[in-house]
């Protein structure tokens, strides 16, 4: 597959952020079975989303302390896997990276989304209905707006927007989520959500979706496998045993799959570093119950290096009957480094279920445009308290 011809200006010896990330995207499109014309179009869209920072040389620091990735690259890739099908490629981008303030970042993100809506002829009514909630005059929190593109053949992606429930303050995030659900007609949905430590993201599907979803993402600190198995409220899909098995495999405590040392058989291990996340997707308003559930394990914080993360991802994919070769090809498309030489290339592993569709496994892949995290020397999973880890991450990466 040829590289796109439009990449940003490149100083001698210093590739730009746009050149680096679109090169990764084009190679990942090849892994996902997208043709050269689709790859070039989607790479152009990524450059547009990045805006002026696409031309920023990588020998300069990141344009902002983006919460989207550990090294502050405002781009993340993911591949969703199902049996007997090519993986689905997605790219997550922060359109307002480098805007100078959260308020301007939000305005930049909204302008990009509305330009995409005009290009691909989709409505932004639901987003417009929530603008005052998520874009106050003096926003707070770690980000303003992210946009995800699910890349399909034909050059028209599915679009998702991620908003920050803490925009008016962390202490008001639950109230913000409740009100957003109410405005969109999901009046009973908030009470269906499980207990959590924080409300992380509020997301909307925009454009050509069979059943557009409203999604709420939650953080669960010090979670165990048994507790993870009880988070789903869909009433179908993977049962508690399957969710627990995924949790143990991704966390590295599944003796049955030959992973880890089987400490406490995985049942009593609590993940006390970066929190596990859950997502609850709502598509209908009558029952108040979610139709979709996803569990995200931040595998990068529970491995020595990406060799361990790849081993766990392969085990999870094989359990679901998925060909593992595209994952290895995807990592090679993003970086030439050995998995053992860093940690964080595979950021999350996720198990997702949407009513009426088979379960899928998603691997989230870091761009690493600015930095590779070195291999880690790990204590047992629960040895670092959630509070201590958050404090350490805030000081090192401005993440909470």
Strand order in the sheet with the most strands: 1-2-3-4-5-6-9-10-11-12
Shape: globular
Give Rg in angstroms.
Answer: 20 Å
Biggest pleated sheet: 10 strands, antiparallel, barrel
How many H/I helical runs? Answer: 12
Structure classification: alpha+beta
Mean model confidence by pLDDT: 89
Question: N-to-C terminal Cα separation, in Å?
Answer: 39 Å
Strand % is 15-25%
Low-confidence region ranges:
1-11, 255-259, 261-267, 382-400
Tally the beta strands: 12
Order of helices and strands: HHEEHHHEEHHEEEHHEEEHHEEH
State the helical fraction: 25-40%
Question: What does the model show?
Answer:
- There is one protein chain.
- The chain has helices at 17-31, 36-50, 102-120, 125-129, 131-134, 173-183, 189-192, 225-229, 240-251, 306-319, 325-334, 386-397, and strands at residues 75-81, 88-93, 145-151, 158-163, 198-206, 214-220, 223-224, 270-271, 276-282, 292-297, 346-354, 360-366.
- A hairpin with a 6-residue loop joins strand 1 and strand 2 (88-93).
- The relative contact order is 0.13.
- It is globular.
- It is an alpha+beta fold and 400 residues long.
- The chain contains twelve helices and twelve strands.
